[in-house]
Amino acid sequence: MQRRGALFGMPGGSGNRKMAAGDIGELLVPHMPTIRVPRSGDRVYKNECAFSYDSPNSEGGLYVCMNTFLAFGREHVERHFRKTGQSVYMYLKRHMREKVRGASGGALPKRRNSKIFLDLDTDDDLNSDDFEYEDEAKLVIFPDHYEIALPNIEELPALVTIACDAVLSSKSPYRKQDPDTWENELPVSKYANNLTQLDNGVRIPPSGWKCARCDLRENLWLNLTDGSVLCGKWFFDSSGGNGHALEHYRDLGYPLAVKLGTITPDGADVYSFQEEEPVLDPHLAKHLAHFGIDMLHMHGTENGLQDNDSKPRISEWEVIQETGTKLKPMYGPGYTGLKNLGNSCYLSSVMQAIFSIPEFQRAYVGNLPRIFDYSPLDPTQDFNTQMTKLGHGLLSGQYSKPPMKSELIEQVMKEEPKPQQNGISPRMFKAFVSRSHPEFSSNRQQDAQEFFLHLVNLVERNRIGSENPSDVFRFLVEERIQCCQTRKVRYTERVDYLMQLPVAMEAATNKDELIAYELTRREAEANRRPLPELVRAKIPFSACLQAFSEPENVDDFWSSALQAKSAGVKTSRFASFPEYLVVQIKKFTFGLDWVPKKFDVSIDMPDLLDINHLRARGLQPGEEELPDISPPVVIPDDSKDRLMNQLIDPSDIDESSVMQLAEMGFPLEACRKAVYFTGNMGAEVAFNWIIVHMEEPDFAEPLTMPGYGGAASAGASAGLDNQPPEETVALITSMGFHRNQALQALRATNSNLERALDWIFSHPEFEEDSDFVIEMENNANANIISEAKPEGPRVKDGSGMYELFAFISHMGTSTMSGHYVCHIKKEGRWVIYNDHKVCASERPPKDLGYMYFYRRIPS
């Protein structure tokens, strides 16, 4: 056994010291209750630290907790020991050495390497002619850092030996049986084989979809039983949908739905409402054909003329990746790449752009010590911890170090290619942010724009205190709808996070060239000759901006002035301008044959963007508003009974939904009322109730129901007036928090200890604002956090002048395939981030981007 000095290479270590088997057993006796054998379902993390990208290949190795099976690098293992008291860790280290050369200068003959016993997901070439590898494992006992070399079957207790063998032989937590995939495979739905499909004549067009119960045109799901097209799940940022697909299932019980826009020859995103998870449908092609969608024909159409399809794409791939130019690798802080996990480039490109924004850098990396210290016991399942870990990995420069001069000289002497940049692997981050998501949890390519909104949703839900870095993207859109018959108008506002620009194909400046190219291409196809050089449509940016601002027809518009449906037109303007403007070019659509198509266009995106002329002006003189009358609600007969019985006993209010809403910052009593009046249908539905009623004067008043004689109000008040249990207060203060913080947290969480601790960490502003808390403490009538009237969405309004600093480009025919690359302007020059490769850009293809990131120019 060794002491700490030997392990960390410190002077003064005691070196190796042999001990009898009884000594080792005696040393482990106090820790035996904490040593576990991994069970089925336990995730053993032996490849990557929970707080950093350290691995057994790192200089300091990796420590695996023998109780939780979480792994920690040298810098973070002490934190876990202090927080949990777990003392026994398995230290793993893979050593890499240059092979001994033979007399003739070549490497010695290959032989089986018995020194490799760790099953690691690494890029190591274990059969390399130049290097040999040796794995090391030992138990380390904290806090004295005693070491027990492994294997040590003779001296270790049987339980410890079994636990060590199980850890060493465990598979990656990101895979089960198939080594080529790192996500769990989706289950086959039990409803797929015998799915009933109604013969109702429904045929689904390739475009122009909208929800059958509302006007939403995104996040739409096709029910595979009756062909209904309905909007999907509601998200925190009020995007995503109104949950009508789920309501349809609850009404009729039709279990399976497929997301429109995800259908490719290889499959689609299918969700089972009954099983409450994404599933596989082995008969999906047959089920879609029932509604006129021919997946197999899509495959033939898309890939039938491979030469015709591939040549234009090769050009696009070369231009965007800057193929053929000598790109200089970049190293250091902010120049770390991300390994491609197999169609994960959409995630990598978005995260590179996100962490080039100072507000995100400060919110996560700037708060690293605090976030790590207050992380939950399993930091792999905490969004803020994993965001901070990823941000530090990208920005620290710790994982982007240039090769040593001696290595470069050796490479030149051997006439070998330059050493490759390694980058960091976002496996843990992707596994967390994509869990329970039907699209991002798959191993298929996804839409970078959809992932960006998904990430914003997660940032919103897991904000740190009062500051929210995603505020920099949020802006208000003013929508003006005019009844064409009465000329009356209605102004509404909604929140958005990106500006979607249509592609104005009719405004192409090289129409003659395009016509000539198309004729030549068809002639070449007919005669099986090589295709002509691609001619790409050149679209002025000003035309796309004009198309965005032009009025559009509103289908099925219900005029409150006429009390009937009428023709209506809608125009959109910016009610506020965000700090950072994200612009998406709407390049993707569907053809009549249901094949995804992409507008292969060149748009002269400006470096400096002025959209001040798109500022909303509100109700203008002479305009008359439409009456504030809602359209009649038609309730299906089979839903009336359910709605009539929706109200519940106030004592049965779902407190978990109440606390989810309270954690968003809404008054506690308002949250209780929202959950009550929506019949315990969940926090998402209750949130919509809050948005509708938050302007009412009694919004934050206690819940009172005449039918219950005020019991709800009395019960709520009694719970709030009671002083939190003193023993719980003492427990929190013993952890180092102020008494005022403990009281405040317990009152806000109904004296729930675990939620109170989470509340303290998520409200750091109360730690600083001690005078406010003391005043609350002395005020006998102060029951919870001040229930001031909630403000509207927080926006950072300002000038509409912007400067381009990043853009994401897509190569391929569809968002479901292809590849994403990100370009970011840093230190005055453009840099290309192509997965793990980070290089100085020579010719940034700003005209071929898909998403553009602009920062406001201070006025």
Cα radius of gyration in angstroms: 30 Å
CATH architecture of the domain at 22-98 and 115-122 and 130-169: 2-Layer Sandwich
How much is the average pLDDT?
79
What top-tier CATH class of the domain at 22-98 and 115-122 and 130-169 fits best? Alpha Beta
Helix content: 25-40%
What's the CATH H-level homologous superfamily of the domain at 22-98 and 115-122 and 130-169? Zinc/RING finger domain, C3HC4 (zinc finger)
What global shape is seen?
globular
Quote the beta fraction.
15-25%
Which spans of ≥5 residues are poorly predicted at pLDDT below 50? 1-20, 107-114, 176-184, 235-239, 299-314, 412-419, 635-647, 705-722, 767-790
CATH topology of the domain at 22-98 and 115-122 and 130-169, anyone? Herpes Virus-1
The main sheet comes to: 8 strands, mixed
Q: What is the distance, rounded to the nearest whole angstrom, between the alpha carbons of the first and last residues?
A: 66 Å
